Amino acid sequence: MIENINELNHKNIPINSIGIDEINNVVTVGLEELKTEYIETIKELVKNKAPEITKKGNPLSFHRASKLTRLSRTSWHPNLFGGIRISRYLGSGFSEGSTLGFSARLWDGTRGFIMTGHTGGVGTIIYQPIPTWFGLGNRVGTIDLNPPLNNRFSDAAFVGNPTRPVINTIWPNRTIMGWRASWDTPPGTFVDMEGMITGHSWGIIVARWYTHTDTQGTLLEQVAAALHPIPTFGDSGAPIFSWESDPNRVRVCGVVVAINHTAFPNHGTVTIYSPVDGIQRDLTLIWGPP
Q1: In whole angstroms, what separates CA 82 from the centre of its chain?
Q2: What is the percent of the chain where pLDDT is above 90?
Q3: pLDDT at position 35
Q4: What is the C-alpha separation between 196 and 237, in angstroms, rounded?
Q5: Contacts of 172 (CB under 8 A, 6+ apart)
Q6: What is the dihedral of CA 182, 192, 252, 158, to 10 degrees?
Q7: What are the Cα distances from residue 101, in Å, to 139, 199, 270?
Q8: Which of 45, 106, 122, 194 is deepest in the core (most CB within 10 A)?
Q9: Of 154, 169, 184, the domain-final residue
Q10: Same domain, yes or no, for 10 and 90?
């Protein structure tokens, strides 16, 4: 009978789910809209195809069911984790996106997540994925800690006590097993990135303890990596991570800051990232995933 009902999808009846309720002994049918003509057509089909069932009573139960959509890095997520889109509100219905880095804890035990520091100062409201209702909807927290971006060791900010759970995961399902400091990632180390725009990039570290200067200020002891594809606007804050034997069990190395076209001519355009030990130093984090 379920096969017969499913055929109605080809007759412009929007059936989005079919299942069996074993407790009540009925077939449940999920429709995009609970229109009388849809329900009557399905009942008539069952009556014709399986008359022995209808003799025992009403074998069908109808409910409204939206079509399932596949989650992406830029979708709304019930949990917060590395590699997905977050945003700040610019006003007049506009927003600016960046990428969530990873879960962390302050020295006092406050749980939250790390993001790029150049998105905004302390008090900036953060949304996931984007603000709705002119800045009222999809709020997940505010930036609690972000010292001035000059002569720092990281371009990173901390959002504490967010409104959704933060989990030790990097998109899509990589488990964060630990953190890996810059002293443990010499040139030649393979690293990966998950950015909300570029997606997955990978490559090798080409330099450590690099001083990066731009309009935001000067960052000390940064790391340069030759990643492909090259990250772009919106990937700021994206987690940089490494793995050994299992690509789904990773260690966080840092977060994306910027790209540089000229600093390392032998490697072309490189990605500058703030190492996790620099982030810990600036933001007084407890070492390792919460």
Answers
A1: 5
A2: 69
A3: 84
A4: 10
A5: 83
A6: 100
A7: 17, 13, 19
A8: 194
A9: 169
A10: no
